[in-house]
Amino acid sequence: MHDGKRLLHALDSLWTKYQKRLTDCHHRPTEEAVHKLRISTRRLLALIELLKTLSPHPSLQKLRKNLKTQLDAFDELRDTQVMLLEITAKQDSLPDLLPFFRQLQLNEQWLLAQTPARLQAIDQPKIHARFKKSHAHLSQTLGKAHLKPRILTVIDETYQAAMARYQAIDVAQPDTIHRLRIAVKKLRYMLEAGQALLPPLPEDHIEQLHAYLTRMGEFQDSSVLLLNLKAFFGEQVPSSIQSYYQHRHGTILSTFISKREHIKLFWRPSSKQAFPWESCPP
């Protein structure tokens, strides 16, 4: 199978999964359904990013913009549901959380009630039409192309962008870790989408990337929770809550910082250098 056809097959597969996740979310927008839709959308976006670099076309850029808008529409619901999961587990040991928990429940109910309208506001026929137009363009331009060198270049550039964000990490600025997380997510999904056309990766490579992202995700969720606690309680956050979640936040941050250099194991520093797993001793 030609390289281009492999990528088109991956695009079809991701599109089908995205549509299924979207339907699931329409029927029952639970935390799990929203989470799975966001993952499917991010994977689709990463492949579209790769494809529009290989074969630019206005429909690809428009499709990317539509999907990104849809992804962003679920940010508040996702954050609320993640906080609810955490707070529910701690109500017995931290009873002062009860009013905050009730406020989160009300906010979740309101956001869930808004979800059908938010989904309805997204012009799915237009997105589908743009997908079909993009697919036709890609079939014509990439269907029989040999793309391995070009894909390697795109992933090299994606990794270098992630490394620039890695170098910019400031533990006093949570957004710097969040920006790194977004860049590493893009790298992970590109590696997954193009894996059949890449040099063999270590057996647990994607799992290690996922673990790295999970640590940053836990830090981001903790940062969001602390901000929301402060917004709810003002300057009067109960000492038991403040103490517990500040300590928890510090532990999560320390765990990530202790392993942050693992990013250097995920790809080569430049096209002229070996992959890290090739230069490791047996």
UniProtKB/TrEMBL annotation:
Q: Which SMART domains does the record match to this protein? A: CHAD
Annotated Pfam families? CHAD (PF05235)
InterPro entries, A to Z: CHAD_dom, CHAD_dom_sf
CHAD domain segment(s): 1-272
Q: What is this protein called?
A: CHAD domain-containing protein
Tell me which species this is from: Methylomonas rapida
